[in-house]
Amino acid sequence: MKNFFSQKGMSLIETLVVLALFTIVSGAIANYVSTFYRQNGYTISQSYQVSNARRGVELMVRDLREMTYSDDGSFPLITKTENAISFYSDIDRDDSVELVEFRLASTTMYKYVYDSSGFPPVYSTTTPDQTYIISEYVQNLLQAQPSFTYYDMDGNEASPDLSVTDIRYIEVSLIINIDPLRNPGEFMLRSSASLRNLKSDI
Q1: What SS3 state is found at 71?
Q2: Over the chain, what is the mean pLDDT?
Q3: Chain-centre distance for alpha carbon 112
Q4: Are 90 and 74 in contact (CB under 8 A)?
């Protein structure tokens, strides 16, 4: 008896057809992805920066809420302006209180940290021990909107000349927009912190 084995593969024409179809489909997918990112790149970038800023605001509020008296006994809040604030806070949960400053420079919100040294403890503000970028593309200066708003113990917005010892509540507001001339436009992030570590006789 004879055994006949039939082995059939793709012909050259079939192979060329498959390659052509694969090339067309791959090109269509690549073109779609490229078009999607061109049309939606701004929105995606804006969403990414808003997400970063949201985490930054959460960090700022956390540090503000932990505001406390310095290692040398100074009042927790040092300076207060519309776009900068400095205060004492134990941000790393150790046995030493740090001097913390948040400052908006152009469109970037920075965090500067100064450690105390010596005995009695001294805070040198010549050069920060740590520097962090809290958020970029902040448009508060362009929009003439304060990054920090201060309130007294009665809940009234504080006047610029009100003493730091009378401040009890701080509101943080950041306007984020990677390109103010394009849609979808600015996004406002807002949160607040009360000064809860103050002595009752202040």
Answers
A1: coil
A2: 86
A3: 14
A4: no
